[in-house]
Design a protein that fits this description.
Number of strands: 9
CATH architecture of the largest domain: 3-Layer(aba) Sandwich
Distance between the termini: 11 Å
CATH superfamily of the largest domain: TPP-binding domain
Strand content: 15-25%
Order of helices and strands: EHHHHHEHEEEEHEHEEH
Number of helices: 9
CATH class of the largest domain: Alpha Beta
Structural class: alpha/beta
Strand order of the largest sheet: 3-2-1-7-8-9
CATH topology of the largest domain: Rossmann fold
Helix content: 25-40%
Bound molecules: ligand BJW
Largest sheet: 6 strands, parallel
Number of domains: 2
């Protein structure tokens, strides 16, 4: 069996990382147009760096929850049976990796990476980032930006996503509101390709009608239940 899983901020909510659009979410407290666009970064890099430095602090202090661990068990279980898990996350955190997943496709980038706008090199970067920092590869100063996909930028690895969807049997969306494209359109692509579709979320998403199966509750409950059921089915 081949499963394509798309995760969103809801899977990391119980790890203490905020979601974006829930009540009290990140975009209720901060204006995304002033923080998560290339234009915002060009106009005021210090404010954008400060926002992501605070998010890095928060991520360093957080830990994976049972939903992340369950997806790692699913990856191992499917691989044992000759199947595959393609884990595609919109999240910029590293909680899937810390939860034990070995292959994670970060379509919106990674908070613990920085990219040089001069030479294009991507570097692991766990600490604060600012205009005083230099690129370890080319030495240019003030050219590093968060390795994150902002509004108006093209998500990473869309070809790999399309290929993985084309060879999957089941599409599962976990903890995502289904409001940011192109990720939000993947469930429809999956349907056109004939995949079964399943939503696991705290509550019905904007796309809930597009799913064949749905289970609602906190990710730390519904994801392990789903994974144990799949692992029993594949024996
Ligand atoms: C729980 C839970 C618990 C809570 N347990 N669940 C039509 C087509 C194509 C593009 C567009 C289009 N219309 C508009 C666009 C442009 C735009 C867009 O979609 N805008 C919308 C807002 C309308 N898209 C873009 O700009 C994208 N690029 C693009 O389109 O390029 C053009 C192109 C594409 C393809 C081919 C050719 C050209 C880029 C989007 C980049 C998104 N970036 C962000 C910020 C990242 C950096 C940062 O973190 O600061 O990514 S925005 C933010 O939203 C973040 C997330 O990854 C993304 C999705 O949010 P997510 O994960 O769904 O979170 P929430 O908060 O929305 O939902 C949480 C869910 O969890 C809820 O359902 C809760 O119920 C649930 N939940 N607690 C389980 N305990």
């Amino acid at each position: 069996m081949r499963i394509f899983v798309l995760t969103g901020a809801g899977i990391s909510a119980e790890s203490g990382l905020g979601t974006f659009r829930d009540t009290g979410g990140i975009w209720e407290r901060f204006d995304p147009m002033k923080l998560a666009t290339p234009e915002a970064f060009a106009a005021d890099p210090d404010t954008v760096h400060a926002f992501y430095n605070a998010r890095r602090d928060n991520l360093r202090a957080s830990a994976p929850n049972p939903a992340h661990a369950a997806l790692a068990r699913l990856e191992a279980g499917l691989a044992r049976g000759g199947g595959e898990l393609f884990l595609c996350t919109q999240n910029i955190d590293d909680l899937h990796e810390r939860g034990g997943s070995s292959r994670v496709h970060h379509m919106h980038g990674e908070l613990f990476k920085a990219r040089c706008t001069a030479c294009g090199a991507v570097h692991h970067w766990r600490d604060d980032l600012g205009r005083e920092d230099s690129c370890p590869d080319c030495g240019a100063r003030g050219t590093l930006r968060p390795h994150i996909v902002w509004f108006g930028e093209i998500p990473f690895g869309l070809d790999a996503i399309g290929e993985a969807l084309a060879r999957a049997d089941l599409f599962v969306a976990i903890g995502t509101s289904g409001s940011v494209y192109p990720a939000a359109g993947l469930v429809q692509e999956a349907r056109y390709m004939g995949l079964r579709t399943c939503e696991l979320n705290l509550e019905p998403s904007d796309n809930a009608h597009a799913f064949d199966e749905r289970a609602y509750g906190p990710a730390s409950d519904v994801v392990p239940e789903f994974v144990e059921r799949v692992l029993r089915e594949i024996g």
